[in-house]
Amino acid sequence: MAAQIYSGEKYASRRREISANLAKRPEFHDSKPLPFMTREEKILESSRKLTLISKHMNEIIDPSDKRELYHLNCEVLGIEGNPMALHGDMFIPALTAQASDEQQEKWLSRALRREIIGTYAQTELGHGTNLRKLETIATYDVDTQEFVLHTPQITALKWWPGNLGKSSNYAVVVALMIIKGKNYGPQTFMVPLRDEKTHQPLKGITIGDIGPKLAYNIVDNGFLGFDHYRIPRTNLLMRHTRVEPDGTFVKPPHAKINYSAMVHVRSYMITGQAIMLAYALTIATRYSSVRRQGQIDTTQPEVKVLEYQTQQHRLFPSIARAYAFVFAGAETVRLYERVLQEVETGNVSLMADLHALTSGLKSVVTHQTAQGIEQARMACGGHGYSQASYISEIFGVAVGGCTYEGENLVMLQQLARYLVKSAGLVQAGQSSKLGPLVAYLGAKSDSTSLIDRTPTPGFAEYVKTFQHIARKQTLKAAQKLFGFMEKGDTREVAWNKSTVELNRASRLHTRLYIVEAFVRRVEEVADPRLKEVLTDLLRLHVNYELLDVAAYALEDGFLSSSQLDYIREQLYFYLAKIRPNAVSLVDSWEFSDRELRSVLGRRDGNVYENLFAWAKASPLNKTDVLPSVDKYLKPLMESARASKL
Ligand SMILES: CCCCCCCC/C=C\CCCCCCCCC/C=C/C(=O)SCCNC(=O)CCNC(=O)[C@H](O)C(C)(C)COP(=O)(O)OP(=O)(O)OC[C@H]1O[C@@H](n2cnc3c(N)ncnc32)[C@H](O)[C@@H]1OP(=O)(O)O
Ligand SMILES: Cc1cc2nc3c(=O)[nH]c(=O)nc-3n(C[C@H](O)[C@H](O)[C@H](O)COP(=O)(O)OP(=O)(O)OC[C@H]3O[C@@H](n4cnc5c(N)ncnc54)[C@H](O)[C@@H]3O)c2cc1C
C-alpha cells in the first residue's frame, strides 16, 4: 500500500531506508520535544539540524531527488518550517523558471550549493491578492542602467515572505516595473539584502521578523522596505522577459509566466497537505484503537472508541480523502513538470489548464484538510487538545495553506474564470473545443442517476452523478453572470454578484476531479488484495462526498430520496467494512514516530505512560514552586488569610 501512496515501490522503500538510517543518528533527532522550546530555541535547533543535513545529506539521500529530500526534511526538521524553507520551496524554483542561463550560472548554482540563502518576497502589508496593485516600485534609470527599488509608503512594505526576516541574504522580489513613466506590472528581480560576510542589512534596506503566528513559527516571516535601493538592470529575471539597456521591454510568451513560483508551490502543496492530513489521522486512528471508554454491549468490557460509528464517521471519510489527495497530488506534479518542460520550448498552451486545476485543488484540498485535522483532534478528546498530540501544530501549519499561495476564495474564482469560458463554448455550440478537464460540461446528462438502479452499481454511475452536479452548477452560475451582464451590469459588477455561485461551481468541479483521480488510481491497481481495500475506501469516498453535495442533485430530481437512502446505507456499510483495516490504512503511510512527533500517535500504543513522562518533562515541572507563586500567589493568599483574621 505504501507503494500506492508514494507512487511506486522505489520511493516507498527509499523512505524506509532513509528513516532507518536516521534512526541510527541521534544527532539528527529533536534534542527535546518541540512544544517545550521557545521560538528562539526552535530556530536554533532547526539551524543546527539544517547544518547537519547540509554536511551529511549525501550519505543519506540522493540530493537530486526532490522526494527524498522532502522525506529527510519531514523526519529531521518537521512541519514547523526551517530557516531555509523558502529557499527550496520558492527561491530556487523562481530562479530555475525565470532566470536566464547566464543568471542561473551566477545565482542558481550558488543557491544550490547554499552559499547564499534566498526567499520569495511578493506580498506587502497592503496587498497580497491583487498583484497588479503592489506598491513596491522598480524604476529603470537608463543613465546608470539600474533599477531603483523603493517603498513609497508603509503599505508597500514587503510583509509575510518566509525566512525574509532573519535568515535570507537574497530575495526574489516582485515589484511594479516602471520604465520611462510606463507601468509594466509586477516583475521579478534578484535582490541582495544582507552583506554576505557580516549578514548585516545592506544600506537602503529595512528588514525584520513580523512576530509569532498561529503556527509555522520556526520560519521568520519578515518585512522589508527599500529606500531608493539600486540594483543592476541585469538583476531583472530575464529568462522570458527582458529589458534592453535603452529601456526597451521585450514581452514574455505568456503574460503570467512570472507567476511560476506560485504555481510550483500550488502544484506540490497538494501532496504536502495530504501528508499532513494523514499525520493527524494516523495519530487519531491509532489512539482511537488504544483508548477504551464506554460500552456498546453492557455485558462486555469497555470498547476501543474506534468501535463507535460516530468515531468511524469522523475519521474514515478523511482517511479516504487523504488517499484521494495524494493520488490527485501525484497527477498534479506530473502535469506541472510537463508544463515546465513545455514552457522551456516556448509552448505555453497548458499553462491555463494547470493554473485552473491547481487553483481549484489548492482551495478544496487545504479546506478539507484543515477540517479533517480538526476532527482528528476532537476525535482524541481532551488529549487531542494537549500539544502532546501535536495535532494543534499540524492544524496550524496546514490551515496556513488556505491563505498562502492565493486566498482560497480568490483562487476558486481563478478556476471559475476558466469554467465560465468553457460554459460559453457550450452555449455557443462549440463543445468540441473544450479541453479534457472540462469535456464533461459539453456532454448531455441522463435524466436521472442510475445509482442503485443497476445490479452492481460501479463507479461510473457515481462519476456521472458528480459530473451532472458540477455541470448543472457551472452552467447555472455562468448563466447568472451572463444574465446580469445582459441587464447592463459591467462584467466586474456582474462577477461580484455571482461569485458565491461561481465558487460553488469551482468546488464541485474540483471535487469531481478528485473523485476521478481516485477512480483512475484504483483502476490501475493490479494486486487483488490491495485493490479490494482501496475499492472499499473509494466506495466510502464516493458515498460520503455525494451525500455532502446531494442537495444539488435532489433539487432537479436527478437523485431521488430513495437513492439518497441507498447512498447513506452504503456509507454506513463501508464504515463498518473498513474498520478492521483502519489502522493498517494509516500505518501504510509509514510515518516514523520521529516524524509524527506525537505522544498519542506512537506506533507501540504506549500512550498513558508516555503522556505522564511528557508532562513530567514540562519546563514548568523543573521546580515544585514557581517564582510566580512566590512573588504573587503566596502573598495574595497570605493577605487574604490575614484579612480574614
Ligand atoms: C509522494 C511524495 C512526493 C513528495 C514530493 C514533495 C512534496 C512537497 C510537498 C510540499 C511542498 C510545498 C510546501 C509548501 C511550503 C509552503 C510555504 C509557504 C510559502 C508561501 C508563499 C506565498 O504565499 S507567495 C505569495 C503568493 N501570492 C499569491 O498567490 C497571490 C494570489 N494572487 C494571484 O495569483 C493573482 O493576483 C491572481 C491570479 C489572483 C490575479 O492575477 P492578475 O494578474 O490580476 O490576473 P487576472 O486579471 O485575474 O487574470 C488574467 C488572466 O491570467 C490568468 N492567470 C492568472 N494567473 C495565472 C497563472 N499563474 N498561470 C496562468 N494563467 C494565469 C487568469 O486565469 C486570467 O486568464 P483569462 O481568464 O483572462 O484567460
Ligand atoms: C503562513 C504564510 C506564509 C506566507 N509566505 C509568503 C511568502 O513566502 N512570500 C510572500 O510573498 N507571501 C507570503 N504569504 C502571504 C500570502 O501569500 C498572502 O497572505 C495571501 O496571498 C493572501 O493575500 P492577502 O493577505 O492580501 O489577503 P486579502 O486579499 O487581504 O484577503 C482578505 C479577504 O479578502 C478577500 N478577497 C480579496 N480579494 C478578493 C477578490 N478579488 N474577490 C473576493 N474576495 C477577495 C479574501 O477572500 C479574504 O477573505 C504568506 C502567508 C502566510 C499566512
TrEMBL record:
<dbReference type="InterPro" id="IPR036250">
    <property type="entry name" value="AcylCo_DH-like_C"/>
</dbReference>
<protein>
    <recommendedName>
        <fullName>Acyl-coenzyme A oxidase</fullName>
    </recommendedName>
</protein>
<feature type="domain" description="Acyl-CoA oxidase C-alpha1">
    <location>
        <begin position="259"/>
        <end position="420"/>
    </location>
</feature>
<dbReference type="GO" id="GO:0033540">
    <property type="term" value="P:fatty acid beta-oxidation using acyl-CoA oxidase"/>
</dbReference>
<dbReference type="InterPro" id="IPR002655">
    <property type="entry name" value="Acyl-CoA_oxidase_C"/>
</dbReference>
<dbReference type="InterPro" id="IPR009100">
    <property type="entry name" value="AcylCoA_DH/oxidase_NM_dom_sf"/>
</dbReference>
<feature type="binding site">
    <location>
        <position position="123"/>
    </location>
    <ligand>
        <name>FAD</name>
    </ligand>
</feature>
<dbReference type="GO" id="GO:0003997">
    <property type="term" value="F:acyl-CoA oxidase activity"/>
</dbReference>
<dbReference type="GO" id="GO:1904070">
    <property type="term" value="P:ascaroside biosynthetic process"/>
</dbReference>
<keyword id="KW-0285">Flavoprotein</keyword>
<dbReference type="GO" id="GO:0071949">
    <property type="term" value="F:FAD binding"/>
</dbReference>
<dbReference type="Pfam" id="PF14749">
    <property type="entry name" value="Acyl-CoA_ox_N"/>
</dbReference>
<feature type="binding site">
    <location>
        <position position="162"/>
    </location>
    <ligand>
        <name>FAD</name>
    </ligand>
</feature>
<keyword id="KW-0576">Peroxisome</keyword>
<dbReference type="InterPro" id="IPR029320">
    <property type="entry name" value="Acyl-CoA_ox_N"/>
</dbReference>
<dbReference type="Pfam" id="PF01756">
    <property type="entry name" value="ACOX"/>
</dbReference>
<keyword id="KW-0443">Lipid metabolism</keyword>
<dbReference type="GO" id="GO:0005777">
    <property type="term" value="C:peroxisome"/>
</dbReference>
<dbReference type="Pfam" id="PF22924">
    <property type="entry name" value="ACOX_C_alpha1"/>
</dbReference>
<keyword id="KW-0560">Oxidoreductase</keyword>
<feature type="domain" description="Acyl-coenzyme A oxidase N-terminal">
    <location>
        <begin position="1"/>
        <end position="117"/>
    </location>
</feature>
<comment type="similarity">
    <text>Belongs to the acyl-CoA oxidase family.</text>
</comment>
<keyword id="KW-0274">FAD</keyword>
<feature type="active site" description="Proton acceptor">
    <location>
        <position position="405"/>
    </location>
</feature>
<dbReference type="InterPro" id="IPR037069">
    <property type="entry name" value="AcylCoA_DH/ox_N_sf"/>
</dbReference>
<dbReference type="GO" id="GO:0055088">
    <property type="term" value="P:lipid homeostasis"/>
</dbReference>
<feature type="domain" description="Acyl-CoA oxidase C-terminal">
    <location>
        <begin position="460"/>
        <end position="638"/>
    </location>
</feature>
<dbReference type="GO" id="GO:0005504">
    <property type="term" value="F:fatty acid binding"/>
</dbReference>
<dbReference type="GO" id="GO:0005524">
    <property type="term" value="F:ATP binding"/>
</dbReference>
<keyword id="KW-0067">ATP-binding</keyword>
<comment type="pathway">
    <text>Lipid metabolism; peroxisomal fatty acid beta-oxidation.</text>
</comment>
<dbReference type="InterPro" id="IPR046373">
    <property type="entry name" value="Acyl-CoA_Oxase/DH_mid-dom_sf"/>
</dbReference>
<keyword id="KW-0276">Fatty acid metabolism</keyword>
<dbReference type="InterPro" id="IPR055060">
    <property type="entry name" value="ACOX_C_alpha1"/>
</dbReference>
<keyword id="KW-0547">Nucleotide-binding</keyword>
<dbReference type="InterPro" id="IPR012258">
    <property type="entry name" value="Acyl-CoA_oxidase"/>
</dbReference>
